[in-house]
Amino acid sequence: MSTPSDSAAEVDRREALRLLLRNPLVTARGDPDGFALVRRHADELKRDFERFFGYRLVVEGRFARLHKAGLGARSGRRLTRATTGTHFSPRAYAYLVLALAATVTAPEQMLLSELVAEIRAAATEAGIDLGEPGGAQKRHLTAALRKLIDWDVLSETEGSVDALLADDEREALLTIDTEIARRIVSGPVGRARSPQELVAAAEQTDHGGPRTSVRRRIAETPVVYLDDLGDDERAWLRRNQRREQVNFHDMLGAELEIRAEGIALVREQDDFTDTEFPGTGTVAQAALLLIGRLLETARPDGAGHPAAGGRLVIGVPVPAARIDTLLSELAAEHSSAWSKAYVADIRALRADVCRLLCDMRLLAPVEPTRAEQAERAAHAAAEDAGAQDSAQSGADRQVTDVSAARGQRAESAAADDAGEHWVLLAAAARYRPHATKRPRTEPATEGDAP
């Protein structure tokens, strides 16, 4: 938050920083006021992002692009279709990448049919079988092109890309911004030979070590739990958390809430993300009500700060069957107000509710945490280096033990399909259900094939 002593320029700079964290691509066409703000403070913003987060900011005449780093597996958020709010399917992502490949070297203007031909040619070159261009394929392709329009890579000069959905031969004239197209992809694609390598390479940083990686997680995720961090990161945060409260206030005008189980960035108006929670719609209401029902029984004993003799609790296990039962009960109670498609398909409702709660860091699948993964890697390295080096390394680092902070280690559920079991995380305790029945206004869920 700003204070009376903050200058107007300081307030504007912080607003521009938050804007770019929320929306890493700001264009003159899509957000003229925001882009003007970024251009006005471009030099300071470039310096601040590089120094504080290790991010690179590019500001050109028509756009500003913040090149962020990845945060590892399961940390990303799926794209959604603007018209329905449904998530991109794997096929829609394939079309999006192929469309980008076709636009980076495209002329300034193309007919829609020409762009589609270039996309199919790129697919053939990449060995991707797109199949016959039927109705589902056209919907996936249209969703990809609509996303490029949202990003101002494409603009509809005459006609609309929705012509793809029609049965006739209608055309559209598209204008292409190749400069923006070339800046969309930010990860080290050329250095990766598999999706797993790409995710790992995108997370790596040679700038600032634990300081930079912890700051990125604080700024980019709703909550950072201690077991989201490796030993070095937890040790750094323990030494510097009070100083970081000042740093984040000075940088972003936000406060850091420090608790035994982790740390979170708090602002009166949450303008770091475009995800609102609690929110409206069936999924958001079901998620909030589910949290309330789970909290009725998920109350661990002896929770507290280890320094005060308490037991560190980051989460408590929740059987998947419990979630299914509660969602079925809630769907029956709210059947007149909720989406009929979700009421009829509890599996689909569970998938989207759990995805939203995972995005908000209120729920997590039972799987190895980053702390456990780092511990395994350290043990493997220690075995290679020798037991004596391992003992010395452990003696040199005093960090909070997070090995059982989620009620059970991931290994205990490995034999019972870890992906189908969940952990209710500590931050869920701050939410209480206030959803009310309201007339259903959501569009029907699309039945696109993947």
Automatic annotation (TrEMBL):
Residues 383-393, 403-415 have a biased composition (Low complexity). InterPro entries: CHP02678. Pfam families: DUF2398. Residues 374-416 are annotated as: Disordered. It comes from the Bacteria. Transmembrane segments: none annotated. This is TIGR02678 family protein. It comes from Streptomonospora litoralis. The lineage of its organism: Bacteria, Bacillati, Actinomycetota, Actinomycetes, Streptosporangiales.
